[in-house]
Amino acid sequence: MDTLKVRDAKDVEEVVRAAIANEQPLEIIGHGSKRGIGHAMATNAVLDVSALNAITAYEPNELIVTLQAGAPLADVLSLIDAKNQQFAFEPMNTAPLLGTPVSGTIGGMIAAGLAGPRRIKAGGARDHLLGAHAVSGFGDSFKTGGKVVKNVTGYDLCKLLAGSWGTLSVMTEVTLKVMPKPEAERTLLLRGLDDAAANKAMTAALGSPFDVSGAAHLPTSAFRTRIEGLGDIAGQGEALTVLRLEGITASAAHRAGSLRELLAPFGTATLVEDVASAALWATIRDVLPFAADGALGAWPVWRIVCPPASGAALGTVLARETGGDVIYDWGGGLIWAALPPKPDAHGPAVRERTNAAGGHAMLIRAAEDIRRTIDVFHPQAPGLAALSERVRASFDPKTILNRGRLTRGAAA
Amino acid sequence: MAIMMPASDQAVLARRAEIVAALRAIVPGEGVIDSAAEMRAYESDGLTAYRQPPMVVVLPDTTEQVSLVLKYCAGQGIKVVPRGSGTSLSGGALPLEDGVLLGLGKFKRIREIDFDNRAVVTEPGVTNLAISQAVAHAGFYYAPDPSSQIACSIGGNVAENSGGVHCLKYGMTTNNVLGCEIVLMSGEILRIGGKSAENSGYDLMGVITGSEGLLGVITEITVRILQKPETARALMVGFAQVEAAGECVARIIGAGIIPGGMEMMDKPAIHAAEAFVHAGYPLDVEALLIIELDGPKIEVDELITRVETIANACGSTTCQISTSEAERNLFWAGRKAAFPAVGRISPDYLCMDGTIPRGALPKALARIRELSEKYQLGCANVFHAGDGNLHPLILYDANKPGEIERAEAFGADILRACVEFGGVLTGEHGVGIEKRDLMPEMFSEIDLNQQQRLKCAFDAQGLLNPGKVFPTLHRCAELGRMHVHAGKLAFPDIPRF
Ligand SMILES: Cc1cc2nc3c(=O)[nH]c(=O)nc-3n(C[C@H](O)[C@H](O)[C@H](O)COP(=O)(O)OP(=O)(O)OC[C@H]3O[C@@H](n4cnc5c(N)ncnc54)[C@H](O)[C@@H]3O)c2cc1C
Ligand SMILES: Cc1cc2nc3c(=O)[nH]c(=O)nc-3n(C[C@H](O)[C@H](O)[C@H](O)COP(=O)(O)OP(=O)(O)OC[C@H]3O[C@@H](n4cnc5c(N)ncnc54)[C@H](O)[C@@H]3O)c2cc1C
């Protein structure tokens, strides 16, 4: 298969135009770290944007960074870290979960749109993408949005590009919002709660004025795999409910105290700070209990998003019915479910239960043969699916970009 | 009118009586208004320089009625303009002579308050403030707070992606909505999202937010609510130069502090506001910053000290710190009343809304001063300094021949300057008709065509709110045409592996 390593936006236009003329669909990759997600594609050439890797402009006082889409995430993170800034949506590193080498580009991060624990407070990738230059499936470069945080000029196409898995346009340059890193973080730990009680504790915390920036629950089963870096936090392997407070030191400490009082009915919370707290949240963000090289590495993994207060009910039923393990983030609104291997990855049960809870489920890790029989992305109601398809076609009428990635069978 | 609207469809106008009757069959009783006198209330929105009575006003009160009205209009090729409370400052809700004005004013019910999921499900005609009031007893509020919040509808907020003084820290409407029910021009009713943090598939909620009534009619919205911060305090800081105030803003952000609000006023705005509300604003300064810190008391107290130190280092000439709620509200009173205050010193004013990179502030204000000279019109500036959103208020007198035209030309030059300095045409008020013809300053034809193709995915006939946002209208078939670039059948000369 041809891999075309584009050098600039003009190259991208030319490749896409040639692909249109040849009716030859393209796979779009950054570093290709997430190629294992989604459906097999009917593409016979690869458009590789990783050489579009310049950092165009970084203006810490404006809280923005402009980058070419192939810029390595690791470089960008260290650049902004040096100015004590971060992407507030805490994008996850999928490498441990998927068992792929640690790499990745900014374009891939946005196209996948997988936000971490801070999503409940700071939003997702879609909330931080301010502007983009991209090449549509018409082979034309266009821009949308701008380079300022406040902008309502024209439709906000950035929202569509974030989480589009490369099926609408090839991003060539993006402007992202950056935010100051909090001075301090404090995490309260509650031990031994069952899922339902943990959900209640998280709901109470998130409904408090203490500005909680992370609320997760690791049931006992999550500790089947020994996790490096957690140290004492893992304790005796009891279930662990964790709540994060960030900000200036005095404030984080003060709110931790107030929240501990509020949560007294759920037990006596202990506290971890800064480095230990960060390691814990990286574990949750990257779903390390289900890491590819851990005890459940061979199990398919679902990523389920639902109304937060119904998380425990949904997760408990799924775990019981399938014999699987679950982890809760976003106060119950995000469930990671590792389910015992089965040819359909328990797809019908997961989808039925998730629909009933008003959520949606994505099969983020599964062998290719399973992905051939089960929809990776949650099927939408017919009217919405038809509108989504019209929206997709408005960017890429010939389905040149990542044909088949989002829809099973579409590759044929 | 300086702005051309799409030509009226005479065939539709000729059938007005029949159309009114058909709409009455869908929305009975007082829900259809066709008398000239009663329609007058709907002939303009907050951009009052433009007026146009609609063909007929329809005020449905159920989603089914909205669906039937749209389906009927789609079948008959009749244009439709949605309207919330009519406070748009960009003319988004300006009626069309041959169009149905679809008012959502009867959708006034909050359908569900769900504290556990921190969400409110509401009808679109509910005012922004009413949502906060409905959840206040439990300590919650809805964060985006446009100054028009007593009047503007949440549906209009979604359509305009409205902001407010607190959006630097808490985001605009788009960052605070979870889902909606929307009726397409075809009459099809769709549900997007719900109480989950994010939706599956493409982020349609994201693109509907800020779509200015061109993609669909919103009939229900699910918004995110937050707990009110424990406390808030404000600083009022005066500077002898605008540059110093701009530097102060940059250093606060640079120090990693994101205030709840950070507003700036220039000398004419300070004077107008002080004369109106007597907030105790210093009159001998060139720029005034109001900086609000919110959160737990211990945090607010510490940040106030840090901000004060920064302000001093930037050469502030006055610095007052609120010690009570009454005093904090007083600091804000002048800023919040800035528009009416300016209304008192000038018969008419135009409110502009560009955004610039924060660092370009001194340059932008200098340019506005030059333009003010050139056009011989006064201008007062209020500014969401934290996020670079500028609101120049251009003073004019509509009764003096030529002044409105001069004011509009002045405004257009300001917006061009915003784009020149790396900013955008509108930060929160929307494009509407007001900035429609300036869109090419920011976007190429290709950029605009891509946006219009998206419109086609929602409304292929182009019947919903035409004449807004886009300077030229293209047929969907024309936009969808693919130009196959002949003679390039092989992949070009690009490195392969
Ligand atoms: C130190 C370090 C820390 C990391 N931390 C994080 C982190 O915090 N967050 C995080 O997300 N990742 C992190 N990663 C990497 C992460 O695992 C992903 O690899 C990365 O975000 C995805 O980029 P990719 O280029 O490999 O994606 P790919 O697998 O190449 O692409 C993912 C999807 O995006 C599409 N796509 C890629 N580029 C474009 C484009 N230009 N335009 C349109 N569509 C495109 C693809 O078609 C595909 O659908 C980290 C990596 C390192 C080295
Ligand atoms: C004094 C004053 C102060 C203001 N301050 C601010 C401010 O601080 N920040 C800010 O952002 N704005 C501000 N505005 C502008 C205005 O209030 C907002 O744009 C507001 O969101 C408009 O809401 P509305 O209900 O009045 O909408 P309308 O004016 O009725 O309509 C606005 C647009 O939305 C569309 N629309 C309305 N309802 C729907 C619906 N249900 N479905 C689909 N489309 C719909 C209309 O077609 C139109 O294009 C201010 C206005 C005034 C007059």
Automatic annotation (TrEMBL), chain B:
GO MF annotations in UniProt: FAD binding; oxidoreductase activity
PROSITE patterns: FAD_PCMH (PS51387)
Entries under SUPFAM superfamilies matching the protein: FAD-binding/transporter-associated domain-like, FAD-linked oxidases, C-terminal domain
ATP-binding listed as a keyword: no
Alphabetical keyword list: FAD, Flavoprotein, Oxidoreductase
Ranges of residues in domain FAD-binding PCMH-type: 50-228
Named cofactor requirement(s): FAD
Pfam families documented for this protein: FAD-oxidase_C, FAD_binding_4
PANTHER family in UniProt: GLYCOLATE OXIDASE SUBUNIT GLCD (PTHR42934:SF1)
Name of the molecule in the record: FAD-binding oxidoreductase
Originating species: Bradyrhizobium canariense
